[in-house]
## 1
Amino acid sequence: MLLTILGGCGAWPAAGQACSGYLVEHDGFRLLVDLGYATVPRLLERVGADQIDAVFISHGHPDHCADLSPLLRARTMRDDPPAPLPVYSLPGALDAVLALDRPGLLADAYVLHELTAGGRFDIGPFRAQTRLLPHSVPNAGVRLTAGGRVLAYTGDSGPSPDRVELARGADLLLAEATYVDRVPEDSRRYLASARQAGRQALEADARHLLLTHLQPGTDTRAALAAAGAGYDGEIGIATSGLVFDLS
Ligand SMILES: [Zn+2]
């Protein structure tokens, strides 16, 4: 399983970067996990829009799904559009982004699969297992298994035992870490810190940890140090262009 980071900024895209977006490949199948602001230009530097096989979106915040719009436009506004793109999300999560275009324009560009959090299903060669994790809107963390490897991704979420269970024994935990150390009081239930992500990686016995969704301007060395205080595995920061081979 190969993970390419399209972007890892929380909230808005920093200069030269993009928000949450991850290309996950196995056996020639290309799955996009989240498509936040500015991820599509990073994607198109690598593969064509028509070469994507499926999309999974964790939740409906625009820093996780806004670029579904240009991806679908790039697939459908051409002479030889590819087959409709399977898109997996929680019910209603994509209503706003899919309503940006006039009714009907994107009708043949996608097939929406509304998922039930907690369920297991297959996306191509990937076995997907989801959990509803605490956020200000419904958010599905996902555990993807293929070829004997496991990638766990939190989406955005506050602390929860489910966040640990999702990552149990994973080869890689891709964990939202908006803050370094202290999460502001009004966000404490909905977002996490790098320090919490490190502790979760330890509790879950994950082999590697990638911190993502850092607020632009975050001191990345401080984030790595905070995560490393509770976890002695390898830790990285998700930035546009980073490739992680889980094999
Ligand atoms: Zn969010």
## 2
Amino acid sequence: MRQIISLALLQALMLIPLKAAPLCAQSPSAKELLDDAAKAMGGLQALKALKNQVIESEGKQFDSSSTSRPGGPTRQISTIRTTLTRDLAQPRLKMGYEGKSLLARQAIPWVEIIDGEVGFLREGAGADAKQSRLHPARLATRMREEKRAAAKIILIALGQKNLRRLADGELDGRPQRVVAFVENGDEFRVYLDAKTKLPSQVEIMEDDPLEGDSRFTLRYSDWRKVDGVMLPFGLRTELNGKPLQEEQIKSVRNNVALAADVFSVPQAIRDQKVDAKPIASQWLLRRVAGNVGYADLGRNPPVEIVPMAEGVYRFQGSSHNTIVVEMRDYLVAVEGPLYEERTAAVVKAIKERFPAKPIRYVIPTHHHLDHAGGIRAFMAEGAIVIVPFVATEFYARVAKAPHTLRPDSLEKKGHAVVIESYGGGYLALTDGNQRVEIYPLPVPHAEDFQVIYLPRAKIMIEADHVSPRGGQVRTAPAVGEFVQAVDKLNLDIQTVAGIHGDSATMQAVRAAAKSGQK
Ligand SMILES: [Zn+2]
């Protein structure tokens, strides 16, 4: 059974009213409101007297993207403990992190040290610890988070020339005054409680690959007085209202006599080259929370074309691939991963390699952030999105999400997107020569999971279960789950091709599944 829906883009643009209400000369002014907030926190002098802080906290991290159901309920992924040493006078900090993952993936302890423009990352503990220069985007993201530290935000806001007052708001039934400023291209919106005058939350307006124009929020709660300054002991970050992290602060020490080398970055690390742009992004923080990679963010994405069989090509990236099947009159692409910058480069490479054929279909393996995040670059090409019924609404939302803050290719082209969904069996595309069969695969990883079978080459394309490296297959429970589910399809599979990694023989996959059971 098939169903085709076509979405006109423009009708949806009004869904999320992100544009602030028109500003009018309200009284009191933005500056006066911030002065009141400083007073409520203990006074400007007391805030300025804070030179450093050592903060210990415990918390939880959440994920609302890599869920089983598309758009499905947010789940907790880890418990965390952090120790943060921040310099309030200079851009320096040290963040120690210990996580306990609730999923199979191990959370690795890490330490970040930032000294101005350069940062240091130690991952792991003891002799196995890995040391590297902190990715410029991770550094930029951390330092942007520092601006929202309660001890800093009022002083930072007061120093902005473009400070303005927005329309009043409400949070949990409490009236809020809202002031905003733009720094480094990011709009910050500071909510101040009308009664207590204390800051309630700070939103940063940011683009998200799937959700579009987004509110990345830090909420403060549990205010307590420390050394004459009011500080929040409850911190919670959210993306569009969905929780990312909750922290309960256990202790705050102000103006500590710090050791001289607390923020020191080894010379060997300083000498390491960096080539990525310093893009501050909530996306990166979510990748760090999930203990997964983000190395290509802000880099020119590498695209290597690897022929796999007649008419089958892997457009390889450093972490995620797109697999292209050449039909007589058109192309079929499997996966638009990561984000616009990655998939747009893949689309460009496909068009250069096959200038005469349109990309007619794009087939995402499942809705997870890193697998679907670039799909809008294919939507912008007019590719029809093929998904199981369960994912129709999800991709319709992705197609309609306004991306005005950082317009991507679909936002710029602004044309209709067609989603073809199916159920009750598999779906096949054929030109009499090459055939592409798309099967829903019932696995715990995602309810909308699909595998793509190419009968001519006997290739099965999959994501996140096998992920072969150099033809080798790891022994993980997911490999067994894959084999069990795929065997029920009764297909003649010779090769398993990963969206991650490369390819392996089905024999090697079976062997790994077997030894994983022992
Ligand atoms: Zn996944």
## 3
Amino acid sequence: MPPAARPGLEDMIVGDAPVMSALRRLVRQVAPSDASVLLTGPSGCGKEVLARAIHSQSKRAGKPFVAVNCGAIPRDLLESVLFGHEKGSFTGAHAQHKGRFEEAQGGTLFLDEIGDMPAEMQVKLLRVLEERAVQRVGGRGQIRVDVRIVAATHRDIDAAIDTGAFREDLFYRLAVFPLDIPGLAERIEDLPLLVGHFLARQPGRQSVRFSPDAFARMAEHGWPGNVRELRNFVDRANVLFAGRTIGADEAGALLMRRGRVSAVETRALWAATELQVADTAVEPAADVVVPLRTRSPSAPPPQMAGGEPVALKEMLAEIERRYIEQALTVSGGVIADAARMLSLQRTTLIEKMRKYEMKAA
Ligand SMILES: Nc1ncnc2c1ncn2[C@@H]1O[C@H](COP(=O)(O)OP(=O)(O)O)[C@@H](O)[C@H]1O
Ligand SMILES: [Mg+2]
């Protein structure tokens, strides 16, 4: 039988920001080895996506990929979940149970939120990784396990090591190959590709379209929930505006704050929906991503008035360039301050300034 076609890495790890291309390249290099990988980055930035991509590009692709969220499992159950237990080993252990390590035999074990692992489990995990064997709770014999470990954390693991909350020896065992994924705001030029990716998941029905104004509004958003927040945003837009083109106002109403949605936001959202419905009833949305009429207070770029196409990426880059310029002016050219203002890492800002050939002052 010919080997099954592997999905391309570009389809799995979407994004053409330089950092995403670099990550894809690293994934390709690291995947074939059995080296442990530690993925760091804020919540929703794609750590699990990368873990799955590494598995899919490895020689273990035909074997299981097993994910465990170490932060979500009660601490007194974690050992049995990971290593399994024998019947009667503790109250409630009615039957023998295989642990996740055994389930992942021959494949990849993804230890998510490893930074939340209690200290006593860190010791046990380290021993298992060193001995390549597990002992079930209440069991005597050692069971050999052949698994590749990919771990992830959204926490500042360096700080956790400094305070003693995370074992340094375990860190070095896990982070043979550390990969850091930046938040969405640090690669905002990926918005169009990611939006397209999420829309393509719902084939067979007319999906929502985003006007350049809507994209501009979205590019200004900080995306604290990163790509996960964007996916939810696109899903919400698609439910409310299927088959229609939305502008900056609708996008703004859809960009709810994290946490509970306030009554004001709900009203704004419904108001936006009604406006849009009334609009399209009069004039059906065109098949291009161009607003027929914009209600946005920010004027569209001049070339849009004539219904001409707009190069979205260039436009977003232009917005980015302008914000950086402004931040540098306000900060008096102090890069660290400008970076803080833009919620960027200093190195990211420097990289972007180089891209736009800008000087600090
Ligand atoms: N680069 C990417 N390309 C495509 N989808 C992505 C990308 N990054 C994240 N996602 C999607 O965003 C959501 C959150 O990603 P996930 O990997 O679970 O984040 P994390 O593990 O860092 O919290 C998932 O639905 C995932 O498919
Ligand atoms: Mg996750």
